[in-house]
Amino acid sequence: MRFLDLLVVALMPVLKVLLVTAVGLFLSIEKINLLGPEVSDYLNKIVFYLFNPALLVSNLAQTITYESLVTLWFMPLNVLLTFLVGSALGWILIKITKTPKQLQGAVIGCCSTGNLGKLPLIVIPALCEESNSPFSNTSTCSRNAQAYASLSLAIAAICTWSYTYSLVSAYAITNTEQSSIQSSQAASEPSSDSCTEPLLMPSYSNGSGKLELPLTNLQEMRKIPLREKIVSRLKKVFSPSVIGAIVGLIIGVVSPLRKVVIGNNAPLRVLDSSAALIGQATIPVMTLIMGANLLQGLKRSEMNLSAILGVVAVRNVCLPLLGIGVVKAADHFGMVGSDSLYQFVLMFQYAVPPAVNVGTIAQLFQSGQGETSIILFWTYAVASISLTLWSTLFMSLVT
Questions:
Q1: What's the pTM value of the predicted model, to 2 decimals?
Q2: CB-side exposure of 29: number of CA atoms within 13 Å?
Q3: Given a cut of 80, is residue 56 above it in pLDDT?
Q4: Where exactly are the transmembrane stretches of this chain (predicted)?
């Protein structure tokens, strides 16, 4: 297949994402204000608590079976590698660029956490729909694409709300301790040049709708009983998306449950069709919200240019190159099978821009949320070109 044909195939899904993102950005500008901060916040909650879990339950239950789960065992390892290697590269980046401590969590989070859910759900199935796609000749392409993208989303959700959440949380706690010290110093030595921003972080949501004040020092953290710490951590890890992924996997893998819920003759097929109907709203709504969030990236912040360029280089150059090496090595040792679409998805997971959820986590802790938006803006701007080129190269390598 010619390079130009592959380029066109790779470009079409990316253009769809860009167009819908542009609509979200347009709706969020001040003159229009149909998708302002308050509306985006409500939509985010609906996606987080309803749309996303419904999409995961439906897609995983329909496409994942015990047999397919066994053959896809390498994908969880591959996703974990993207997080670990991205974190290592992010840590090196903050040392080289001397990123301020309060922004280090945002930088490492953006380097480690890719958009492994929404973009694959849009791009991978769309590749099967292109008439000149190298994958469109297979009769099971669309079904496999949904399975691969859904499993990627499920694994990414678990890693994001456990690993990345803890990572950003650690830097946010450090930042709060420093703010407390600065607050006491400012109280004893008032100055006319003192900062007008609050020195202690404002309240944030714990995910259940209730507001809690963040801990301001390690001594207060140690006062919390171990049982409460464990329960709090489990609530963060088992987000609605993670629970939805677990439920979908159980229905898909357990044969008796699958026969009851999945299929045209299943007694409870209305449950699956209802979940699928709700889940269909996830991709367009999330893409619109992504456009609204990226608007903040046009504002100024404390993030230096070298750190932004570093994150762009990590996510758009270093990780995709590493992904080619990892997948080719796994293929050499017979760890990923012969399905070219599956190998493409594994490589694609290294080339995606940072997950928008990194901005959500940063906003949760009031730690570098504006800077995270700027990083997201520029990485997505570059990804509109790089993702097309990398997808073209990946297709040429696996077909």
A1: 0.77
A2: 8
A3: yes
A4: 6-27, 72-94, 106-127, 147-173, 237-257, 277-295, 307-327, 347-365, 377-398
